Amino acid sequence: RSCSFTGFSTVQSRKLAKSLSRSSVRSRMSLKPPKAYNSLQKGALIWDPKPLQVKKIFEALKKGLNEYLEAHQAELDYLSGRHKDTKRNSRLAFYYDLDKQIRSVERYIRKLEFHISKVEELYEAYCIQCRLRDGATNMKQAFSLSPATKASRESLVELYKNVQECTEDMCFIEGALEVHLGEFHVKMKGLVGFARLCPGDQYEVFVRLGRQKWRLKGKIETDDSQTWDEEEKIFIPNLHEKFEIKVTELRGLATILVGVVTCDSISFFSTKPQAILVDITELGTIKLRLEVLW
């Protein structure tokens, strides 16, 4: 499978572009866009795709999935070794229990392998559409600089349609790829502020990822511990949006803005929980501690 097609030079190449556009995305992909991505269906409003951002997310996602695959493969090797030893010792009950564990891990590994192959297939199709769109865009610019003739005007119309179709297909694939990003489990670990945090202080933390929102309130107790009305929230990763974190201090009926920061999610695609310490104020006098598990 190749992404080497880079441009449009003839009428035949434009027909090939249209054919690839349809077959590589709509026909080859049996995946239907879920309800969350209805706006990506044909004829809907299309936004501008972000190939560089998609590439970063794809690489981070693939790395994280491979980490999970390696970890479960190591677990399978360990269980298989114990399985052989147990078989020689004829401890049947323990042997069958190990056999069940091995079959369970093997099933999970097959699911991971399918997941990885699906993500690679989606990104491959995305690369094809990106190259086709770039080629059509370059040809459109070239035709726009040439003398205006009936043939050039017809070519411009055809190229414009190709650009629109490739753009639509890229957005469709972005929506399909988001379905495979998993979940982020975000845990509140509290504020860090040393002298800035005093007993009785109340704070509100607002975390947003695209349309997903999490608002929680906390209080500094007399023993310097903190109590929060919520401790965990699940977010669905987004290809284009970053985490936005806003912290305000509550003083009676008044609210005082402490700070607003943004946080990229690319580093969260990992098998291990990611501890985050975010500077809320410019001088770092108040920090927010979160833990993200993918």
Distance between the termini: 30 Å
Number of helices: 4
Q: Helical proportion?
A: 40-55%
Which strand order do you get reading across the main beta sheet? 4-3-2-6-7
The number of distinct structural domains comes to: 2
Largest sheet: 5 strands, antiparallel
Please write the string of helix (H) and strand (E) elements: HHHHEEEEEEEEE
Radius of gyration: 26 Å
Overall strand count: 9
Overall outline: flat
Organism: Hylia prasina (green hylia)
Family: Belongs to the RIPOR family.
InterPro entries: FAM65_N (IPR031780), RIPOR3 (IPR026136)
Protein name: RIPR3 protein
Helices and strands in order, then pairings?
Blueprint: H1 11-27, H2 51-89, H3 92-145, H4 150-178, E1 184-192, E2 202-209, E3 212-220, E4 226-228, E5 232-235, E6 243-251, E7 254-263, E8 274-279, E9 287-293
Antiparallel strand pairs: 1-5, 1-9, 2-3, 2-6, 3-4, 6-7, 8-9
Helix pairs in contact: 1-3, 1-4, 2-3, 3-4
Q: Could you describe the 3D structure shown?
A:
Residues 1-294 form the FAM65 N-terminal domain. Belongs to the RIPOR family. This is RIPR3 protein. It comes from Hylia prasina. InterPro entries: FAM65_N, RIPOR3. With 294 residues, the protein is of the alpha+beta class. The chain has two domains: 51-179, no CATH class; 184-293, Immunoglobulin-like. Helices cover 47% and strands 22% of the residues. The chain is built from four helices and nine strands, in the order ααααβββββββββ. The strands form two sheets. Strands 4-3-2-6-7 form a five-stranded antiparallel sheet, with no helix packed on it. The longest helix is centred in the middle third of the chain and has 54 residues, at 92-145. The model is unreliable at 1-46 (pLDDT under 50).
